[in-house]
Amino acid sequence: MARRTLLLLAGVTLLSATPMSLAANDEKTTLAGLIGVRVVVEEPDNEPEGLSQSILRSDVESRLKSAGIRILTESEWQAAPGRPSLKLDVTVKAATKGTRLFLVELEIEQDVRLVRDASHSGPATTWSATPRLGVVPAAGVAPVVQAVREAVDEFIAAWRGASRRR
Predict the structure, then answer these.
(1) What is residue 62's DSSP assignment?
(2) Domain 2-165 adopts which CATH fold?
(3) One-character DSSP codes across 63-124
(4) Which has more pLDDT, 44 or 30?
(5) DSSP code string of 4-18
(6) Which of 24, 78, 129, 160 has its CA 20 to 30 A from that of 1?
(7) Parallel/antiparallel/unpaired status of strands 38-41 and 85-94
(8) Looking at residue 51, what is its pLDDT?
(9) Which pLDDT value is given to residue 7?
(10) What is the pLDDT of residue 11?
């Protein structure tokens, strides 16, 4: 049963993925020149104890600051080219008795313009980390926090790679 639930969650994740797809080099190019990011943390579904929106935001922002990535205030973000947001979405669902499934998704969303009509612009995902999917004991959140940290570290590595090219 747990395996079937895990496969179902994985399938739903793949089907709900952003339809826009960029090659790895293009994704890194979209990170070049970022002056910083606004951090957006969605409220975790079925928020387990010890895994609140504020705890996740604090952890993400701390990792970014330690890597030298600026956290933009609302006014800085509004004025920043492309208005880049680092968006974190953590989903936790009950699986079998005593276990939960989790999914961690992290992406950069920026304002973009259509090539064929530059008057049309709007937000789009321009970079995304590898989704992290797992099963944890109902009382444990450490693997979920670790998955968030791994996704953030993936972003930091991509950002550093894009920054070196400039």
Answers:
(1) H
(2) Rossmann fold (3.40.50)
(3) HHHHTTPPBPPHHHHHHSTT--EEEEEEEEEE-STTEEEEEEEEEEEEEEE-SS-TT-EEEE
(4) 30
(5) HHHHHHHHHHHHTS-
(6) 129
(7) parallel
(8) 86
(9) 42
(10) 46
Mean pLDDT of 123-141: 92
Helices 142-165/53-66 angle, 10° precision? 30
Question: Coil, strand or helix: which one is 134?
Answer: strand
Phi-psi domain of 43 (left: phi exceeds 0; alpha: psi -120 through 50; beta: other)? beta
Are 91 and 56 within 8 A, CB to CB?
no
Q: Which of 122, 137, 132 is nearest to 20 (CA)?
A: 122
Predicted TM-score of the model (pTM): 0.82
Domain ranges of the chain: 2-165
3-state secondary structure of 52: coil
Q: What is the pLDDT of residue 24?
A: 52
Contact 154, 141 (CB under 8 A): no
- Which candidate, 157, 152, 163, 160, places its Cα nearest to that of 63? 152
Strand partners, 91: 103
Longest dimension (CA), the chain: 53
Q: What is the pLDDT of residue 19?
A: 42
- What is the gyration radius of the CA atoms in the chain, in angstroms? 17
